[in-house]
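Table S2 (text version). Query chain:
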Amino acid sequence: MEVAFSEMRNELQSRDALWRKIQLECQQLHAELLKIREYKDMQETQTKHQLSYAQLTEQLENRTAELLLLAQSEEHQREELKKIRNHVYQEEQSHRSEQERMKTEISDLTEELHQKEITIATIMEKAGLLERQLKMELELKDKLLAKQQLLDFQYKVIKSENTHLKEML
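Corresponding structure-token output:
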């Protein structure tokens, strides 16, 4: 996108340079027109002049036609410059809008990531609590199981003694 802007700016600079050249040529033609008029005035006062009045008039008409063409070209160049400037302005606005949209999107994604990190931290904390609870319950069940196994063993011993005593009786 920057390359396109650069190319458009170069095109604007090129057209501005052409515009200045046309203006300079117009000024030169105006100066020549003044000289021709002065020359024409001198011809009317001097009889030895080599160019005839018709030739000067033709040259004047030619110069006038050239000036009109240059003026038309100048107007066309102005319109082209205006179009290019408008296009560059629209492209810059579009670029700015895209940058703002991207900034907003990045901000939203950053906020979403932050929320997910908070959620993950909360889940990890709860998982740690549950793990500790499970360990405590497991230890308690292991103790109860050991106690039950001991009681079962004692029961079997007593039962065996009872059976033995019954047989003796």
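Notes on Table S2: Helices lie at 2-45, 53-168. The chain has a mean pLDDT of 86.
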